[in-house]
Write a structure and sequence with these properties.
Blueprint lengths: L4 E3 L1 H31 L7 H25 L1 E3 L13 E6 L6 E5 L10 E3 L4 H6 L7 E6 L2 E11 L1
Length: 155
């Protein structure tokens, strides 16, 4: 059974839009690039042709990845900010440090400007799930046991 991906409605909509663009407009554009490069002659030493084919391969892989995400996703409702869940933005401080850091708990597709994404299956992400503002949680990092204080939760 395929993995289920939890996505916000915004992330789902962005992915659907990217998929539509890559599957239509982009495929037409890359086909033109390949055709123009073919017209230049010998394909063995044609850098434009090889670059276009490489771009085509990478983007077809992206289309496949997005398709899998869209087919196997579950839209999550925004949280009420009382506890950390997938999709929450958490402001926290590491024990012994006064500088607050913000993390979005979720998949990289949820990425927002200026906020680092932490997987809910990572040591930090799984330790934060269910925590409330004011809670101190510990997790195992490569450098040893770390503790963080949850300052605030959004969404």
């Amino acid at each position: 059974m395929p993995e289920t991906y939890e996505l916000s409605q915004n992330a789902y909509d962005r992915l659907r839009e990217e998929h539509t663009h890559l599957s239509t407009t982009w495929r037409i554009d890359i086909a033109r690039k390949i055709e123009i490069a073919r017209e230049m002659g010998d394909l063995k030493e044609n850098g434009d042709y090889h670059a276009a084919k490489e771009e085509q391969g990478k983007t077809e892989a992206r289309i496949g990845h997005i398709s899998a995400l869209l087919e196997n996703s579950v839209i999550i409702e925004p949280g009420d900010g009382t506890s950390v869940r997938v999709g929450s933005v958490v402001s926290l401080t590491y024990e012994g440090d006064d500088d607050a850091e913000q993390y979005l708990i979720g998949r990289i597709e949820e990425e927002r400007d200026g906020i680092e994404v932490v997987s809910p299956t990572s040591p930090l992400g799984s330790a934060l799930l269910g925590a409330a503002a004011g809670d101190t949680v510990g997790f195992q990092a490569p450098s040893g046991e770390l503790r963080v204080i949850v300052r605030s939760i959004t969404g």
